[in-house]
Amino acid sequence: MNYKHQFFNDYAETAHPACIQKLSEHTLQQEAGYGLDSVSAHAATLIRAKLGVANDTPVHFISGGTQANLTVIGSLLRPHEAVIAAESGHIAANETGAIEATGHKVIHTPHVNGKLTPEAIEQVVRTHTNEHSVKPRMVFISQATELGTVYSRIELEAVRAVCDAHGLWLYIDGARLGNALYSANAPCAWHDIARVADVFYIGGTKNGALLGEAIVFPNLALNDDFRYALKQRGALLAKGRVIASQFVALFEHDLYAELAQHANACAMRVRSVLSELGVVFYTDSLTNQQFPMLPNAVVEALQQHYGFYTWKVLNERKSVVRFVFSWATPMTMVDELLTDTKRLLHP
Amino acid sequence: MNYKHQFFNDYAETAHPACIQKLSEHTLQQEAGYGLDSVSAHAATLIRAKLGVANDTPVHFISGGTQANLTVIGSLLRPHEAVIAAESGHIAANETGAIEATGHKVIHTPHVNGKLTPEAIEQVVRTHTNEHSVKPRMVFISQATELGTVYSRIELEAVRAVCDAHGLWLYIDGARLGNALYSANAPCAWHDIARVADVFYIGGTKNGALLGEAIVFPNLALNDDFRYALKQRGALLAKGRVIASQFVALFEHDLYAELAQHANACAMRVRSVLSELGVVFYTDSLTNQQFPMLPNAVVEALQQHYGFYTWKVLNERKSVVRFVFSWATPMTMVDELLTDTKRLLHP
Amino acid sequence: MNYKHQFFNDYAETAHPACIQKLSEHTLQQEAGYGLDSVSAHAATLIRAKLGVANDTPVHFISGGTQANLTVIGSLLRPHEAVIAAESGHIAANETGAIEATGHKVIHTPHVNGKLTPEAIEQVVRTHTNEHSVKPRMVFISQATELGTVYSRIELEAVRAVCDAHGLWLYIDGARLGNALYSANAPCAWHDIARVADVFYIGGTKNGALLGEAIVFPNLALNDDFRYALKQRGALLAKGRVIASQFVALFEHDLYAELAQHANACAMRVRSVLSELGVVFYTDSLTNQQFPMLPNAVVEALQQHYGFYTWKVLNERKSVVRFVFSWATPMTMVDELLTDTKRLLHP
Amino acid sequence: MNYKHQFFNDYAETAHPACIQKLSEHTLQQEAGYGLDSVSAHAATLIRAKLGVANDTPVHFISGGTQANLTVIGSLLRPHEAVIAAESGHIAANETGAIEATGHKVIHTPHVNGKLTPEAIEQVVRTHTNEHSVKPRMVFISQATELGTVYSRIELEAVRAVCDAHGLWLYIDGARLGNALYSANAPCAWHDIARVADVFYIGGTKNGALLGEAIVFPNLALNDDFRYALKQRGALLAKGRVIASQFVALFEHDLYAELAQHANACAMRVRSVLSELGVVFYTDSLTNQQFPMLPNAVVEALQQHYGFYTWKVLNERKSVVRFVFSWATPMTMVDELLTDTKRLLHP
Question: How large is the ipTM?
Answer without folding.
Answer: 0.97
